[in-house]
Specification:
Blueprint: H1 28-40, E1 43-47, H2 54-62, E2 70-75, E3 85-90, H3 91-104, E4 107-109, H4 116-121, H5 158-164, H6 168-171, E5 177-184, E6 187-196, E7 199-203, H7 205-216, E8 220-224, E9 231-233, H8 239-243, E10 245-246, E11 265-266, H9 269-272, E12 277-280, H10 290-299, E13 301-305, E14 317-322, E15 326-331, H11 341-349, E16 351-355, E17 359-361, H12 364-381, H13 389-407, E18 412-414, H14 417-433, H15 441-450, H16 454-462, H17 465-472, H18 475-479
Parallel strand pairs: 1-15, 1-16, 9-12, 12-15
Antiparallel strand pairs: 2-3, 2-8, 4-7, 5-6, 6-7, 10-11, 13-14, 17-18
Helix pairs in contact: 1-2, 3-7, 12-14, 13-15, 14-15
The protein binds adenosine-5'-triphosphate and magnesium ion.
The site of magnesium ion (MG) has 4 residues, from helix 2.
């Protein structure tokens, strides 16, 4: 990678790192801690204002932990259906089971490779002329006679009957499967032929026995599959989303009419994050639910129960469903006090808290990082062209202005990058509309006009925010105190 800005013509020359954690700009401490947390399976709390990479770090961290090796299922409990059991299978067990099942699927054969009378009975062969066709075609495409399911040369009088009475086809309907026998050595064994799309499936005695065995197994439902993303996001989640639920069944799980309780069990985010990362954005929004997270973190398992007392699911409970996750939380600085202190103590005790940076010093190296950020945003967006060096310098200048305005520091570059990304995209749109090959400095300058926040626009137009509000207030609004639902008095707006 070319390390200084002077060496690049456009952002196309910048190599974007393959590792998503290396795409996070200016948060070295947080990134390093995230690597550590992933490696050692520690919890992590990321603290900082919006748009500086908290979600990005959490997501990238998940790509650094190993793929889950367990599958969680709920199994029907015949003696007490409302207490389904949990079953945890290792990767090896899941694979072995799949293999067994595959074996049970029998052998797929071409219609021409099974005895002709079987092919006729299943509707793949015309009993009159011997032409093969799909069983979905009721009439033979060659001789235009109905496929009767009886072999022309073996059925008695079949030519007469077949020619004169097409209705015979109705009397000997085609079947989905045919059971027959075959001689193996001096023994006779059962063979079943089944329709399987274009092919015919043959199940020999051993396969049939295996199939029966599997069917005899207690019914089960896969709750958390082996193949899953090891990153689960739960933003302001509801209790059921977070902890799981048992769905309602109007027939109350009646043996024939209803759905069995085990089938109605739904995992929560904490269970889906088993062996992965549970990311909770805006942690304080969880309120009292933080308590459950704490319990789940401590026990590494959490029961699933019906959470709606009105529902038939309320009487169902699955105990000890595994939920061994890495917890990653994010919050703003001012929200820190609203996080449950035992939860924080848990994180500190078995993980890290990191305060993210809001700006970085204006150095050549960091300017290059900002250029990498621009290249990333452009590539990710996919709809805008690359930027010239002049455009990059323009964005860097703006990053400097923003660091001064928002953090009051000189010679620094802002790391509030979501908003800066917005600027790049707006400039990109302008470049697209003006059919430019690249985003140029001019586009950035223009976009800066467009990208002004509502407050900035009001300031420009009215001189101050207050002036803007009071001038545009209708008289009726002025007299209606409820208009200011979140204020106790009108002072400051008059
Ligand atoms: N440090 C960074 N490095 C690279 N890109 C960043 C960085 N911070 C933010 N971005 C860009 O801004 C976008 C938003 O960042 P992200 O969602 O991680 O912010 P956040 O801190 O989680 O904000 P919020 O508190 O609003 O959830 C990212 O998808 C990325 O494009
Ligand atoms: Mg976020």
């Amino acid at each position: 990678m070319k390390k200084i800005l002077a060496n690049i013509e456009t952002t196309r020359d910048i190599e974007i790192p393959a590792d998503p954690l290396s795409r996070v700009i200016g948060q070295e401490r947080a990134v390093e801690t995230a690597r550590l947390a992933a490696y050692q399976r520690r919890h992590l709390l990321l603290i900082g204002p919006p748009g500086i990479g908290k979600s990005m770090i959490a997501q990238a961290l998940a790509l650094h932990i190993s793929q889950p090796t367990e599958e969680i299922r709920v199994v029907h409990n015949p003696s007490n259906p409302e207490r389904p059991a949990v079953e945890v299978l290792t990767k090896e067990a899941v694979y072995a089971e799949r293999e067994r099942k595959q074996f049970v699927e029998g052998e797929l054969l071409d219609a021409k490779d099974v005895p002709p009378h079987i092919a006729e009975r299943l509707g793949y062969r015309c009993g009159q002329c011997g032409m093969y066709s799909s069983y979905t075609e009721k009439v033979c495409p060659r001789c235009q006679k109905p496929k009767t399911g009886v072999r022309g040369d073996s059925a008695p009088f079949s030519d007469i009957v077949g020619n004169l009475f097409f209705t015979l086809g109705d009397m000997l309907p085609q079947k989905n499967s045919v059971t027959t026998t075959r001689a193996v050595g001096d023994k006779e064994e059962v063979v079943v032929y089944e329709r399987a799309g274009d092919k015919i499936r043959m199940l020999d005695q051993r396969t049939l026995e295996r199939r029966k065995e599997i069917e005899k197994q207690r019914p089960r439902k896969v709750l958390v599959p082996l193949e899953r993303k090891p990153f689960v996001l739960a933003t302001g989640a509801s209790e059921t989303e977070l902890l799981g639920d048992v769905r309602h069944d109007p027939y109350g799980g009646h043996r024939e009419l209803g759905t069995q309780p085990y089938e109605r069990v739904i995992p929560g985010a904490i269970h889906e994050a088993h062996q992965g990362v549970l990311f909770i954005d805006e942690l304080p929004h969880l309120g009292h639910l933080q308590r459950y997270i704490l319990t789940a973190m401590q026990e590494k398992k959490f029961p699933i129960t019906g959470r709606n007392p009105q529902s038939a699911g309320a009487s169902v409970r699955v105990d000890a469903v595994p939920c061994d996750f890495i917890f990653v939380g994010a919050c703003n600085i001012q929200d820190l006090p609203t996080i449950l202190s035992p939860l924080r103590s848990r994180i500190i005790g078995s993980g890290y808290e990191v305060l993210l940076e809001t700006y970085m010093p204006d150095t050549d190296e960091n300017r290059m990082k900002l250029a990498q950020f621009i290249a990333q945003e452009i590539t990710m967006d996919g709809r805008i062209p690359h930027a010239t060096r002049a455009a990059v310098l323009e964005v860097i200048a703006e990053a400097g202005r923003r660091a001064k305005k928002m953090d009051g520091v000189e010679n620094a570059l802002t790391l509030r990058l979501r908003e800066l990304g917005g600027l790049v995209r707006a400039a990109g749109d302008l470049a697209v509309i003006s059919r430019s090959e690249y985003i140029d400095a001019e586009h950035i300058k223009k976009a800066l006009e467009h990208a002004k926040t509502a407050e900035e626009q009001i300031m420009e137009k009215y001189g101050s925010l207050q002036a803007g509000v009071s001038r545009e207030l209708a008289d009726s609004q002025k007299s209606n105190k409820y208009f200011y639902w979140n204020r106790t008095e009108l002072d400051g707006y008059q």
